[in-house]
Specification:
single chain, mainly beta, 53% strand
Length: 122
């Protein structure tokens, strides 16, 4: 089974930076999208950044200009560089992937990581 494993979370002061990583165990046959969502306590999960196989990227409005998504398609790995962090960025960040997990798959599947905690506090 495909599994997503996040790393890089932690606690930083406002204005600081963190870099999150997400790696898929094994390999996808075909990855269509991969990126990051986040969820703060009592709130809905929201888009942070998403990258498609075709090179398109989407960012949540609240992180534009501060966060940047990148990755290595060959390694099925995606990164999230977070700069100028704000207290409001505090949340559990979840890696997300969508695609065909193996050559026998008849349709795309969606996968989520277990989440990594990011706390921005002074």
């Amino acid at each position: 089974q495909v599994q997503l494993v996040e790393s890089g979370g932690g606690m930083v002061q406002p204005g600081g930076s963190l870099r999150l990583s997400c790696a898929a165990s094994g390999s996808f046959f075909s990855v269509n999208q991969m990126g990051w969502y986040r969820q703060a306590p009592g709130k809905q999960r929201e888009l942070v950044a998403l990258s498609t196989r075709n090179g398109h990227t989407n960012y949540g409005i609240s992180v534009k200009g501060r966060f940047a998504i990148s990755g290595d398609s060959a390694q099925n790995t995606v990164f999230l560089q977070m700069n100028s962090l704000k207290v409001e960025d505090t949340a559990v960040y979840y890696c997300y992937a969508q695609g065909l997990p193996d050559i026998t798959s008849l349709h795309e599947s969606t996968f989520w990581g277990q989440g990594t905690q990011v706390i921005v506090s002074s």
